[in-house]
Design brief:
CATH topology of the domain at 59-164 and 218-231: Alpha-Beta Plaits
Number of strands: 9
Shape: elongated
Radius of gyration: 34 Å
CATH superfamily of the domain at 59-164 and 218-231: Protein of unknown function (DUF541), domain 2
Order of helices and strands: HEEEEHEEHEHEHE
Strand content: 35-45%
Number of helices: 5
CATH architecture of the domain at 59-164 and 218-231: 2-Layer Sandwich
Distance between the termini: 66 Å
Strand order of the largest sheet: 5-6-4-7
Amino acid sequence: MEYKKEITILAAVFIVIVSLFFVVKTINEIEQNKFIGQDIIPQNTINVSGRGEVFAVPDVVEITLSVEKENVSLTEAQSKASEAINKAIKFLKDSGVEEKDIKTTGYNIYPRYDYLKEAGQVFRGYVVNQTLNVKIRKTDDIGKILKGVTEAGVNQVGGINFKVDDRESVLREARQKAISDAKEKADKLAKDLGVKIVRLINYSESTDNNYPYPIYRAQSAAANTGGPEPEIPTGENSFVVNVSLTYQIK
């Protein structure tokens, strides 16, 4: 029994010693820039960057429309807000905006107070605010639509955002330009250094999109009745792709 126990202990000690040997050997090889059985071959590389920019005319406009009504009677405030927003929605649909492109994004009710020096906080009435997000696919109609909805009762307009619907295809074109720019730089650099490009070993990219963002502030419906349509130029959207390429050289 004692003999078997001694054998087991010796075997365990032997395994520990062998394990320590290989650990120390591995550490020494790593310190000497080696892996087990194979030298580490340092890679000579060059890194180049490229930039591609594409301009595209927006074909979709997103706008935020709000109706805000105030009255001492909450029921009356809600009624006036609903009447104005319903008129605006009807006008949008009559103008060719599809129902799927009209979305309610907010409906808020809160009391409003005046603060008087002598009387302190004095209740003034209830405010009802309803907000729509609208997508307009006929960008040439934006001026007519803004005029029409304000005449219907919309008294807040903001967040006018011109977009390109097929954004990915434009980015793809910008990416191709950026890669071509980087490849041209890599070829020139390799030639100047007197080296040859072996292969691409790393690629990264980032995008930088600049959107035109005109501001249009609606006045009361009465103030806009009979007035001219506002001019809202769409301009062009700039799509930029920056790439970084790393090549192995020899």
